[in-house]
Structure formats: structure tokens, C-alpha cells
Amino acid sequence: MEQTSAESDPLRNGQQQARQLHERSSLYDVPAEQPRVLLLDCSTNGTFINGARAFSQGLGTPLNDGDRVSLVLSVTPLVEQYLIFHAEDKQMLASPAATRLRMRSLQTSNTLSCPLRCVAPSKIVANAAVRKLVHRFKVPANVRSRQPQLPQPPAQPASFLQSLPRLPVGEPPEEEEEEIQMSQLCPLNDEILPISATGLRMKQVDALLHQVESSEKDSEVLISSLETLAKIAWNDDEVRKEIADREGVSTIVNVMKRWTASGGVQCNGCLAIVSLVRSESEICQSNQWRVARAGGLEAIVSAMRRFREYAMVQLCALLCMVPLALENNILQAHLAGLGLPDIFLALTQHLDQVDLQAKGLVALGVLGQGEEPMHDAIRARQLQLGAARVIARALEHHGRSNEEVLWAALFALAVLVREGSAPHSLALRSTAAAGMLPLLQSCMAAYKGYRKRKIVITD
């Protein structure tokens, strides 16, 4: 969506005129003798009902209860952005539609995009004319509950809309009405409009951190909030900085410490931490230290120890360790001292988990990578814990069939046997005893065969 909503032309003869954006759609209520709701497509790119394009050029498409109305038809239908039309709800206009669409986009971590590759929205403004139409079609709550369910009439001819009487032009009724519900994480109420896309993201951060801080009893809300926080910060340095400035790093770590019995909180807490430190930007490097000062390293290792059997917690913790220790000698040493045995236990206990094996081997490589004497000490400790055997087992089980495990094992092995390091001779003996050379030859032969087959298929 370019501009999610915009100032449109005034109403003429009670009918909504074409809005300024290509996602413009209107709902019209048909008189009592034909109690149907029609969707009139006034867009350029089309509005879609259950995946099919709605009628255009003045023809209305009847809506049935449960129909999926899409302002944007995604090229990947499984993540298509859509609204569900309910017969009793005629308020799918303007800000309510935009807030629900944006919330669905946020929850699925898929950017709401246009088939014509329009630029991302930069600003959301009020649409006064459409809001007036919303008021006209509002059904008082005490009337709505008494409305009978009527049979569906047949489709109407092209001239049907032209035969309708003009809509009334009076003021909104004074009877009790249900309020249009806005998502707490994507509010588009009139009092905050217009708002920039950046401003809206900052409001989302504020709402999410408030939910995380206030979820003392509802673990489901907390788990969902942590997951959404991770998604909006995943590739956005502005959001990462906002979270850091609002002491969000400490907030995330503290809820992990409080909810030690919840595997879901530990998983999503780790993912939220990953989202704040996963790039090489200045704010991510600063967040590394914020996590450490808040006791985040201890919380991550504690989660691994408490949920030994829970492969997903182990995986999320390993995902945290890699960016936290990357090119940071102090955090490398601290994490190695805290969690090396736990990494080896995870790799041994969850040998069947391919992703966990790959990330665990990468974590071993990252923790031991470097030229300082402390790195020699970390590599020596890894050898004592059986690093050569762990790498060999991962290769034996997955190296011939999974490219990610193969390259992770090669990385961990290269760090372990680094030439010139103090434990170099011990590393060579350990890898030889584990049968590493024939394993590597077998895995590389399988990889070459896979690459050849792939090239043939491509050709």
C-alpha cells in the first residue's frame, strides 16, 4: 500500500467517489427489499474476493458471510493479506481495514506489498469522507442483534446499482453503537493521524514493551508480544534503537528471568535478543553490551539447562550465542566459560535435529575463533569436551545430506585445528582418532554428486 488512506473527494449523491489510492474499495448497503452488502471496486489494481477479482466499472459484487476481501493479492497465497467479511459487520472501511491488514502483516512478518511493486507506505493520513460513510452504515448494537438471517438473493444485472435510491444524508444516529476496534499494536485513530510509517513503528514498540512488562499472569500474551517484537526489529535499526532507548533489552531479559518455567517465553525471549544484535550495525554492537549488562548471557544459558529436552529452546539459545560472541573477545570468553558444556550437551542429546546441529557447530566455531591466548584456551577446552567426536557425529549423520551441516562442521573444524595455535597438535590427534579424514572425503564426494545433479536439472 502506498498511502494507506488519503483525503478523497466529497460524497456526491450519497455515494463514495473514487479514492486517491489504488486500494480503494467501498461497501454499500442495499435497501431493505434486497438486504445484501455489495463491494464496489473503485481501484486501479483491483480488489479481490476469495482470490477472484471483484467486478469493476460500477458493478457491485455481493459479499457473503466469511468471504475473504483482499486489497492486495499476494504472489504467495499462503501469506495473502486479507480481511474476513462478517455479515453483521459493515465497518470494513478506512482505518479499521488498514489497522487489521497491517496487524496481519506484522504477525506473519510479511511486508504488505503491492503486485505492481509500489514503494512502502511512508505516511498514513485521515480520510474524512470515508469516515462519514462509515457512520452512515453503522448499525446500532440494539438493532443489529435483532436482525434476521435472510436468504441470499441472485446476482444482480449491471444496471442494478444505478437503480438504487440515493443514500440518506443526515447526521450519524445517536443510538448506542459499537466502536470500531483498532489493533493495539497498529492504532490508526483520528487523534494520531496523520502519522509517518516510522512514527507508527515507534508506537508499536511502545505498545509491545508495555505488553511485555505488564504480562504478569498471561504467558500467551507475553509469548506473542516477544515474537512480534522480534519480527519488527529483525531488519530495522531504528526499531532496535528505540527498543534500546526505552530499556527494552533489560525488559526482555527480566521477563526471561521471571518466566523460567515457560519454554515459550524462553524461546521468544532469545529470538527477541537475536533481533537486537544480529547485524554489524553500531546499534547492534551496542546492544551486545546491553544484553551482557542485563544478565542476558546467564539467562540464555539458564534456559538451555532448564529445558534440556526442549530442542527449540536449545536452538534459540544457540542462535543468540552466535551474534553475541561474534568478533567480541570479552563476550566470547564469558559465553565460553558459561555455556560450552551446555552446547556440547545440546549437540549430543539432539543429534537428529539438523538445524540445531548446524547452529551448534557454528557457535563452537565463533566461540573459538581468534588469535589471542584466550582463544587457544577456549579451543583446548572444546577438545577436552570432545569437539572432534561431536563434529564427526554430525558429519556422519547429516554431512552427506545437508549442506548447512557440512559447511558448519568445516568451519568448526578449521577453527579447532588452526595452525600455529597452542592446541594444534592435540587437535590433529583428536580429529584423526575420530576418523575425520575419511568422513570428510565421503561427505565431499556426496556434495560434489549433489552439485552435479543440480546442474543437470537446471540445464
Automatic annotation (TrEMBL):
Domain of life: Eukaryota
Domain named FHA: residues: 22-54
Keyword Repressor among UniProt keywords: no
Comp. bias intervals (Polar residues): 1-19
Keywords assigned: Repeat
Location of region: Disordered: 1-26, 144-176
Descriptive protein name: FHA domain-containing protein
